[in-house]
Amino acid sequence: QQLEQASSEPVARYRAERLAAAGTKHVHDPCCGIGSDSIALARAGMQVEAADSDSVALHFATCNAEVNGAAERIRFRLADCELEPPPPGGAIFLDPARRRGARRIIHPEEWSPGPTAVLAAMVGRSSAVLKLSPAVDLDELVTHFPAPDEIEVLSYLGEAKETVFWYGAAA
After folding, report:
1. Model confidence pLDDT, tens digit, residues 108-164
2. DSSP code at position 86
3. Which of 5, 101, 117, 130 could make an S-S bridge to 82, C-beta 3.0–4.6 Å?
4. Is it true that the peptide bond before 115 is cis, omega within 30 degrees of 0?
5. Confidence (pTM)
6. Strands 127-132 and 159-168
């Protein structure tokens, strides 16, 4: 399940380079999963505060960061951002879990973290990046999340991978 949700390396690298080009030095990744986005962010030169509520995923994230030479720029911690939002400051990259087992979850209110926790985590950030499902109607996404400064649909090898809402300096 975690591997299915992980960003592909080229897509994660693209987003990370875009955040770095916006001047981001410090970023929170409170839904880090197995760490593919945290690693890309660290490789782009940012200090990353990564967390996940799944201890097994966090173990893999830590190992993946070490194998990929990014561990020095990432601090991992076990935390559920619905219960313990990331501390203020810096930018934030949010990738809510959109699967339960093998089943895809289409309704944003069922994602983890849900829209309320996502909104709370975004407050006061210099930049925010919200990775969302390209399978969900854009009108529905806009009703659940703040109007972004920019909307981008990313594809890789001819397949739509994600809808990204960009906020603040990164837009």
Report:
1. 888 889 999 999 999 999 999 999 989 899 999 999 998 899 999 999 898 888 999
2. P
3. 117
4. no
5. 0.92
6. antiparallel
Tokens of residue 143, six digits: 């009703």
**pLDDT tens sequence across 77-99:** 999 999 998 998 999 999 998 77
* CB distance 73 to 42 below 8 Å: yes
Strands 127-132 and 91-94: parallel
Distance CA(23)–CA(20), nearest Å, equals 5
Short-list 22, 11, 29, CA closest to 150: 22
Classify residue 169 as exposed, middle or buried by CB count within 10 Å of its CB (0-12, 13-18, 19+). Answer: middle
d(CA 102, CA 3): 11
Helix (H) or strand (E) holding 6: none
**Structure-token pair, residue 10:** 């080229």
The strand pair at 91-94 and 99-100 is best described as unpaired
- Check if the beta carbon of residue 127 is closer than 8 Å to that of residue 46: no
Cα gap 79→77, rounded to integer Å: 6
Residue 10: cis peptide before it, omega within 30 degrees of 0: no
d(C-alpha 163, C-alpha 138), whole Å: 9
